[in-house]
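ESCALATION

Customer reports they have been waiting on this structure for their group meeting. Please prioritize. Original submission:
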Amino acid sequence: MNRLNKNLKADYGIDAPIAIRNLFLCGIAGLIIWIITNFGLLPDVLKTGSIAGVNFEFPLNSIALFCGIIFNFTGFWMIWSSKIGKLKMRDKLLSKINWSGNESVLDIGCGRGLMVIGAAKKLTSGKAYGVDIWQGKDLSGNSYDSTMKNVDIENVSDKVFIKTADMRELPFEDGSIDIVISSTAIHNLKESKDRSIVIKEIVRVLKPGGIALIDDIRFSADYKNDLLKYGCKDAEDISSFLSKLFTILITFGSLRPGTIKAKK
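Update from on-call: job pushed to the front of the queue and completed.
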């Protein structure tokens, strides 16, 4: 074990940093408007209105306070999720697989190594591979070097191999991987046809009997359908209903998470 690593802790970054920034900006704006309305500094024209000749008072004060609270809360929740929650999520996801220790594992959209490193710790003679194109808008400090630093800190450099590659063109042979995992990555492809290509690639590289485990914040039903379409013999959503409901509610439906487990 590298002695320097004993005093270092892996940093897996902040997910969706631009979205978090925008949440805080909106939240702060809401609180500022709420303060202004409480001090009576808001012009009357912004407090009242008329629809079909009916005058009404616009509840800007209450709306601003609500937005200030909910946007800031969601921003802090996303930071907690990035620093603490996703570590718990990783362990929970990986526990859905029956590990023997000699598997070949592929993490699609590996980012700074959260899942691929977690998988590597389950292995003895197996190997864990990760692919990414390192987009900073998806994860703060996202880079090959940051990932390899975490690999070194976590002392799994003998089991982990990272490649720069597009998830739509996986650099692996047909039927060469035992387990494919992906966490909050595939949704970053905006076109449904591109996401479908990724699922087809996942099935292609899986060995017969291999397992795919895809956790994402959107499109889980599409992933399930495509996994079955391209050759998996079964696929199911194994995510927690309550956890999914909480995320949907707190994000006003913007995030609709799901975890699909499939077998080829």
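Sent to customer with the following note: The first helix runs from residue 17 to 38.
Escalation resolved.
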